[in-house]
Amino acid sequence: MNETSNNCMRACVHRNIEDKILQINTILEAFGNAPTSFNSNSSRFAKMIELTFSRVGKITGAKVSVFLLEDSRVLKANAGSFHVFKYVPAGLDAENLLEQHFPRDFNPDKYIDLESFGEKDRNEFGRLRLAFKILGFKPTEMDMIFKVHHPFSIDPS
Asked: Rounded to two decimals, what is the model's pTM?
Protein backbone atom coordinates (compact mmCIF):
# COMPACT_ATOMS: atom_id res chain seq x y z
CA MET A 1 0.00 0.00 0.00
CA ASN A 2 1.38 3.46 -0.82
CA GLU A 3 1.96 6.34 1.60
CA THR A 4 -1.22 8.16 0.55
CA SER A 5 -3.30 5.09 1.41
CA ASN A 6 -1.51 4.70 4.74
CA ASN A 7 -2.16 8.35 5.63
CA CYS A 8 -5.81 7.95 4.69
CA MET A 9 -6.12 4.78 6.74
CA ARG A 10 -4.93 6.64 9.86
CA ALA A 11 -7.59 9.31 9.30
CA CYS A 12 -10.39 6.90 8.30
CA VAL A 13 -11.83 6.68 11.78
CA HIS A 14 -13.07 10.26 11.33
CA ARG A 15 -14.88 9.67 8.02
CA ASN A 16 -18.44 10.89 7.71
CA ILE A 17 -21.41 8.70 6.86
CA GLU A 18 -21.46 9.82 3.22
CA ASP A 19 -17.89 8.59 2.71
CA LYS A 20 -18.75 5.27 4.31
CA ILE A 21 -21.79 4.78 2.08
CA LEU A 22 -19.64 5.41 -1.01
CA GLN A 23 -17.13 2.76 0.11
CA ILE A 24 -19.84 0.11 0.29
CA ASN A 25 -19.90 0.06 -3.50
CA THR A 26 -16.18 -0.84 -3.67
CA ILE A 27 -16.81 -3.90 -1.53
CA LEU A 28 -20.03 -4.93 -3.26
CA GLU A 29 -18.42 -4.69 -6.69
CA ALA A 30 -15.41 -6.80 -5.66
CA PHE A 31 -17.61 -9.52 -4.20
CA GLY A 32 -20.49 -9.20 -6.67
CA ASN A 33 -19.03 -8.43 -10.10
CA ALA A 34 -17.54 -10.97 -12.46
CA PRO A 35 -16.47 -11.00 -16.09
CA THR A 36 -18.74 -12.46 -18.73
CA SER A 37 -18.15 -13.04 -22.42
CA PHE A 38 -19.86 -9.69 -23.11
CA ASN A 39 -18.72 -7.52 -20.21
CA SER A 40 -15.53 -7.63 -18.15
CA ASN A 41 -17.23 -6.03 -15.14
CA SER A 42 -20.74 -7.43 -15.06
CA SER A 43 -22.77 -7.14 -11.86
CA ARG A 44 -23.96 -10.48 -10.57
CA PHE A 45 -26.01 -8.81 -7.84
CA ALA A 46 -28.62 -6.12 -7.31
CA LYS A 47 -28.51 -3.64 -4.47
CA MET A 48 -30.92 -1.26 -2.87
CA ILE A 49 -29.70 1.48 -0.55
CA GLU A 50 -32.22 3.05 1.80
CA LEU A 51 -31.01 6.38 3.18
CA THR A 52 -32.32 8.13 6.26
CA PHE A 53 -32.12 11.91 6.58
CA SER A 54 -32.31 14.45 9.39
CA ARG A 55 -34.94 17.19 9.27
CA VAL A 56 -32.42 19.51 7.59
CA GLY A 57 -31.58 16.97 4.87
CA LYS A 58 -28.31 15.54 6.21
CA ILE A 59 -27.77 11.80 5.74
CA THR A 60 -28.00 10.07 9.11
CA GLY A 61 -27.85 6.41 8.08
CA ALA A 62 -28.14 3.81 5.39
CA LYS A 63 -29.36 0.26 4.98
CA VAL A 64 -28.03 -1.79 2.08
CA SER A 65 -29.92 -4.81 0.77
CA VAL A 66 -28.06 -7.05 -1.65
CA PHE A 67 -29.50 -9.78 -3.81
CA LEU A 68 -27.08 -12.27 -5.38
CA LEU A 69 -28.19 -13.04 -8.90
CA GLU A 70 -25.72 -15.72 -9.86
CA ASP A 71 -24.08 -17.83 -7.17
CA SER A 72 -22.55 -20.45 -9.50
CA ARG A 73 -19.38 -18.35 -9.83
CA VAL A 74 -18.69 -18.66 -6.11
CA LEU A 75 -17.67 -22.30 -6.41
CA LYS A 76 -15.47 -22.06 -9.49
CA ALA A 77 -11.91 -20.79 -9.19
CA ASN A 78 -11.47 -19.53 -12.73
CA ALA A 79 -11.26 -16.39 -14.81
CA GLY A 80 -15.04 -16.02 -14.67
CA SER A 81 -15.16 -15.87 -10.89
CA PHE A 82 -16.01 -12.81 -8.87
CA HIS A 83 -13.33 -10.11 -8.96
CA VAL A 84 -12.44 -10.60 -5.31
CA PHE A 85 -11.00 -14.02 -6.18
CA LYS A 86 -8.33 -12.24 -8.24
CA TYR A 87 -7.84 -9.17 -6.04
CA VAL A 88 -7.15 -11.03 -2.80
CA PRO A 89 -4.43 -13.43 -4.02
CA ALA A 90 -2.83 -10.68 -6.15
CA GLY A 91 -2.77 -8.20 -3.27
CA LEU A 92 -1.63 -10.68 -0.65
CA ASP A 93 1.09 -11.98 -2.96
CA ALA A 94 2.34 -8.44 -3.60
CA GLU A 95 2.54 -7.89 0.17
CA ASN A 96 4.19 -11.28 0.80
CA LEU A 97 1.20 -12.32 2.92
CA LEU A 98 -0.21 -15.05 0.69
CA GLU A 99 1.09 -17.96 2.79
CA GLN A 100 -0.54 -16.55 5.95
CA HIS A 101 -3.98 -16.68 4.35
CA PHE A 102 -3.91 -20.15 2.80
CA PRO A 103 -3.68 -23.62 4.35
CA ARG A 104 -0.20 -24.98 5.09
CA ASP A 105 -0.29 -27.61 2.38
CA PHE A 106 -1.65 -25.17 -0.20
CA ASN A 107 0.10 -25.15 -3.56
CA PRO A 108 -0.96 -21.94 -5.37
CA ASP A 109 0.36 -23.19 -8.71
CA LYS A 110 -2.29 -25.93 -8.66
CA TYR A 111 -5.13 -23.41 -8.53
CA ILE A 112 -4.03 -19.99 -9.69
CA ASP A 113 -1.53 -18.35 -11.98
CA LEU A 114 -0.23 -15.47 -9.88
CA GLU A 115 1.69 -14.20 -12.91
CA SER A 116 -1.63 -13.56 -14.68
CA PHE A 117 -2.65 -10.99 -12.06
CA GLY A 118 -1.73 -7.46 -12.93
CA GLU A 119 -1.12 -4.14 -11.27
CA LYS A 120 -4.84 -3.40 -11.55
CA ASP A 121 -5.69 -6.44 -9.42
CA ARG A 122 -3.13 -5.41 -6.78
CA ASN A 123 -4.46 -1.84 -6.77
CA GLU A 124 -8.05 -3.05 -6.46
CA PHE A 125 -7.01 -5.12 -3.44
CA GLY A 126 -5.65 -1.92 -1.89
CA ARG A 127 -8.94 -0.13 -2.61
CA LEU A 128 -10.87 -3.05 -1.13
CA ARG A 129 -8.79 -3.05 2.04
CA LEU A 130 -9.14 0.73 2.35
CA ALA A 131 -12.93 0.49 1.94
CA PHE A 132 -13.12 -2.06 4.76
CA LYS A 133 -10.96 0.22 6.92
CA ILE A 134 -13.14 3.27 6.23
CA LEU A 135 -16.18 1.23 7.22
CA GLY A 136 -14.53 0.42 10.54
CA PHE A 137 -13.29 -3.13 10.00
CA LYS A 138 -10.27 -4.09 12.12
CA PRO A 139 -7.20 -5.68 10.49
CA THR A 140 -8.03 -9.02 12.13
CA GLU A 141 -11.56 -8.91 10.70
CA MET A 142 -10.20 -8.12 7.22
CA ASP A 143 -7.73 -11.00 7.50
CA MET A 144 -10.59 -13.34 8.36
CA ILE A 145 -12.58 -12.17 5.33
CA PHE A 146 -9.59 -12.61 3.04
CA LYS A 147 -8.98 -16.13 4.38
CA VAL A 148 -12.57 -17.22 3.95
CA HIS A 149 -13.51 -15.53 0.69
CA HIS A 150 -11.36 -17.23 -1.86
CA PRO A 151 -12.15 -20.54 -3.52
CA PHE A 152 -8.53 -21.62 -3.71
CA SER A 153 -8.46 -22.92 -0.14
CA ILE A 154 -10.88 -25.69 -1.10
CA ASP A 155 -9.38 -28.63 -2.95
CA PRO A 156 -11.66 -29.28 -5.96
CA SER A 157 -10.52 -32.91 -6.38
From this structure: 0.70
